[in-house]
Amino acid sequence: MSNPENTKTQSFYITTPIYYVNARPHLGHAYSTIVCDAIARSKRAQGIATWFLTGTDEHGQKIERSAAQAGRSPAEFAAAISGEFRSLWQRLGLTNDDFIRTTEDRHKRGVQKLFTVLRDKGFIYKGSYTGQYCVSDELYVDAPPGSPCPDCGRPTETVSEENYFFKLSAFEGKLIEYYEAHPEFIQPEARRNEVMAFVRGGLKDLSVSRTSFTWGIPVPGDEKHVIYVWMDALANYITALGYGSDDPAEQKRFERFWPADIHLIGKEISRFHCVYWPAFLMAAGLPLPRSVVANGWLLFDKSKMSKSVGNIVRAETVVEVLGADALRYFLLREISFGHDGNFTFEALVQRYNGDLANGYGNLVSRVVAMMHRYFAGVVPPAIAPLEAGEPEQGICAAAETTITAFRAQFDAMDFSRSLETLWSLVATVDGYLTASAPWKKPTERSEDEHAQLQARVLATAAEAIRITTALAWPILPESTAKVWRQLGLGAIDQAAESGELKSLAWGGLKAGTQCNAPAALFPRAEKDAIERMQNLENQNNLTAVAAVSGAETTAPAAAAEAPAPTPAPTPAPTQVAEATPAPSLAVTQNPQIGIEDFAKVELRVAQILVAERVPKADKLLRLEVDLGYEKRQILAGIAQFYEPEKLIGRKVVIVANLAPRKLRGLESNGMVVAASVGDEGAPVLAGFLEDVPLGARLK
Ligand code: ME8
Predict the structure, then answer these.
(1) Protein residue closest via CA to atom 27 of ligand 1
(2) What's the pLDDT at 550?
């Protein structure tokens, strides 16, 4: 099947993934969305008609369960979290042209149309299926019953259903052919190789409906089925443009902007976007997106920042302390796009102070202030024709080289290098200013000569700032707008729209332009900035936990143990773990107890919502567990045996009526039960093979 000829010219369509509404947005979501915003702005500044789409993915079992956990209806829950995404994007100055929610009618209509088209063309058929389903990934996995998801390690559920199937197997060869003919389709190379290996490994038909829950879009004509959440979600890229609509204006938009130029995604969802999505589109006879580009992961404390791991940082925290531009700049400058990158408050503040406060911000304020001091704020008529060997000629040449290099690097999505290039112009101009010292008149220089030098230096520096500012606009929209105004150039957004930022040639800042008063751009971050951000995060931590998904059910050989050294009675078959576990399989030597003694120990089923290492305590994990009727914090001495991220979602047994105690200044409210195994007394967490409700008592 070929990609129908694309007829659109000079238009550009970019999308983010649509985010699940099972928890609030965090920096990982902000990262992908900010990258798209910067690209969209840059395209608009080049005069290209641009459409930038983002939104929320609101259907599926995961959302249904998160809503139930929060005691709300799925619709209510989804609306609340979707609203949080939307308002955060506004706060970050994002310029998305549309925000799609998969619960909207326009989307539902389009998804049902797509399903119908695929069924009518014979690519969807009905069959029955039994397999392991990972609710967290919303994906059937190839694994035996009782085993964890091979992708995310969480427990899977055995699901047996009569389903609709999409003939994915028919697209194996066509997909490979397409990848080979379009090497730019999957970027970066590492993702392309992974996807190709996956497809070459063979494709099975894909189950595209579910009957075990109702929170989704009904299959047209067979309403007890809901459409598979990934088919529903992927279709947003066309439904938001107007696919499935009868409105001619919407149809026109679809024709104008489809196919997408860039689907920007996180690398973990490459398979859905590079295998399923193009196969659906080929089957429907629609053009394929030009590229699917995967960003790497933002890591925090060495693991992927993620709501289920619980190691998230919120964008709001950074915005509150350093501003949205600081966050945008940091993410694009610090992370080599396509690779994983660490987020730390320390690195953020260092970049902010180094590049923004002391770099660009300081250069602008020096130049604008001197323009006011020496020329009443009017750009002097001093850019005389430049002659070889004059320092001004060097600045002009550097600016022109920078324009070309920056654009090439930015367009190649090498954002970090493009900013490095731009900031080296900032450093060059800074050095030129310091070397020319227009604030200091040597005695041998006449007043006239000095005024000429001041004029030349300030006009040159201001022109270099204008160029830097125009190029930096997609990354620093808020602060470049201030600089543009200070240079007397008006509103930079309008300049971007009118094409003024497109043809950037040296000499654009005209003599006689009246500058505005200097205003602070990036006040230096003081020592307490890091602490303030950390405090804001800590305050928010517990509220965020309430929204964390806890979707999984069965917990095969579950995991966790508590450090509480209380020598509790040791009921068989699971032992109550101790800080220093007894030698393995030691014969119980405790005196016998009556049932009434055992009844004093309240053992209950709980699910781990958050698991994280406790700083400076090698053995301890801090857990937040859900008992169904309440949530609490438990410290468990299992850090050497369990990776915290693997524990999220697992159901464990806890001693619920143990008196609270403090460890490392943190309160531990209960104890997790584990067998103590081997010479080391390695803890193996107690768990269940069957599904058990939270809070169930063990007797
Ligand atoms: O996967 N680092 O939604 P989601 C970098 N609804 N990017 C990150 C990140 C991190 N630590 N964490 C999240 C879904 N992201 C589906 C998508 S699309 C048709 C359906 C970003 O809420 C990244 O873009 O789990 C990732 O792919 C996306 O958020 C996942 O968001």
Answers:
(1) 266
(2) 32
